[in-house]
């Protein structure tokens, strides 16, 4: 029986697959073997986009489509991407996107509508960004209050308008990256943050686990490195700092010494603006 050959390539911006799924799929890996195609997404967000377009993609390929996820797609693969918000396409003089994931294109396209539920937090974030000194801001609120949306918008603003280097990652992405650096015996992990102006860690509650001492030690060192260099730190989470029993006091004390912002459930005015926006 003849062995079936397989091919592998990285999706780029001009690829028909990107036209079907959207630009967020750029950087994903396509593997073709026999009558099957496997698309390997770099994160769960991209995987969901591919799942929504599965029928259309199978028609395009005329093959069975399998969908996988691998947040560990190599940095080399990511650097081949030409996604507008990826590391490779944001020039040095215009700021860089660093971190373990791309910015969510849907968050960037959708306005961040203001109302009584989020206006104070938004103003505080603006004030924090305009201060020319180091510090920490901790944004918390229930799921659906707009924490990640606000983080993505401000990350992109810092890159494109303020010309700053931004590290953006979820807490789980940060942990996975840290584990992989240890596996590679790359123990100088903090050095990558020397060029960071804005450090953004989303879903901080994912750190509230046992057996993460190695992550907390490194996170504290990163905090100190950024503070000593006059840089700023953004953290977001579902609950206020005192809720995290497994996070060491030496980290919580630094967080509580900074700005604390509570995003509330969207009020009627905010909901109405979203309804009008998505219905037009």
Label the structural class: alpha/beta
- The total of helices stands at 11
Within the largest sheet, what's the order of strands? 5-7-8-9-6-10
What profile does the largest beta sheet have? 6 strands, parallel
Number of strands: 10
How helical, in percent, are the residues? 25-40%
Low-confidence stretches: 71-94
Query: End-to-end distance, in Å?
Result: 57 Å
Looking at the structure, what is the overall shape? globular
Q: What is the arithmetic mean of pLDDT?
A: 81
Spell the H/E element sequence.
Answer: EHEEHHEHEHHEHEHEHEHEH
Descriptive labels:
280 residues, alpha/beta, 6-stranded parallel β-sheet, 11 helices, 10 strands
Nutshell version of this structure?
The protein has 280 residues and is α/β, with parallel strands linked by helices. The protein contains 11 helices and 10 strands.
Please provide a written account of the structure.
Helix 8 links the parallel strand 7 and strand 8 (198-202). It is globular, with a radius of gyration of 20 Å. It has eleven helices and ten strands. Mean pLDDT is 81; it is low at 71-94. It is α/β, with parallel strands linked by helices. The protein has helices at 16-21, 44-52, 54-61, 75-79, 105-109, 119-130, 147-160, 171-183, 213-228, 249-256, 268-279; strands at 6-10, 29-33, 36-41, 64-69, 97-99, 135-140, 166-170, 198-202, 232-237, 259-262.
Break the fold down into its secondary structure elements and pairings.
Elements: E1 6-10, H1 16-21, E2 29-33, E3 36-41, H2 44-52, H3 54-61, E4 64-69, H4 75-79, E5 97-99, H5 105-109, H6 119-130, E6 135-140, H7 147-160, E7 166-170, H8 171-183, E8 198-202, H9 213-228, E9 232-237, H10 249-256, E10 259-262, H11 268-279
Parallel strand pairs: 3-4, 5-7, 6-9, 6-10, 7-8, 8-9
Antiparallel strand pairs: 1-2, 2-3
């Amino acid at each position: 029986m003849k062995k079936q050959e397989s091919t592998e390539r990285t999706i780029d911006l001009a690829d028909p697959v990107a036209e079907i799924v959207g630009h967020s799929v750029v950087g994903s890996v396509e593997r073709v073997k026999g009558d099957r195609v496997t698309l390997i997404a770099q994160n769960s967000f991209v995987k969901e986009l591919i799942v929504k377009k599965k029928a259309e993609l199978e028609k395009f390929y005329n093959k069975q489509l399998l969908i996988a996820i691998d947040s560990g797609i190599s940095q080399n693969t990511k650097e081949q991407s030409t996604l507008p918000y990826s590391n490779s396409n944001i020039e040095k003089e215009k700021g860089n996107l660093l971190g373990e994931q791309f910015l969510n294109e849907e968050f960037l396209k959708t306005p961040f509508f203001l109302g009584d539920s989020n206006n104070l937090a938004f103003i505080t974030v603006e004030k924090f960004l305009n201060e020319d000194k180091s510090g920490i801001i901790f944004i918390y609120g229930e799921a659906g209050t707009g924490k990640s949306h606000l983080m993505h918008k401000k990350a992109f603003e810092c890159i494109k308008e303020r010309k700053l280097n931004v590290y953006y990652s979820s807490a789980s992405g940060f942990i996975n990256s840290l584990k992989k650096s240890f596996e590679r015996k790359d123990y100088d992990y903090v050095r990558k943050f020397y060029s960071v102006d804005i450090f953004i860690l989303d879903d901080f509650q994912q750190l509230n686990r046992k057996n993460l001492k190695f992550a907390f030690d490194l996170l504290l060192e990163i905090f100190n490195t950024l503070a000593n260099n006059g840089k700023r730190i953004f953290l977001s989470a579902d609950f206020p700092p005192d809720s995290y029993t497994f996070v060491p006091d030496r980290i919580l004390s630094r967080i509580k010494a900074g700005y604390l912002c509570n995003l509330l459930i969207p009020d009627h005015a905010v909901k109405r603006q979203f309804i009008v926006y998505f219905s037009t």
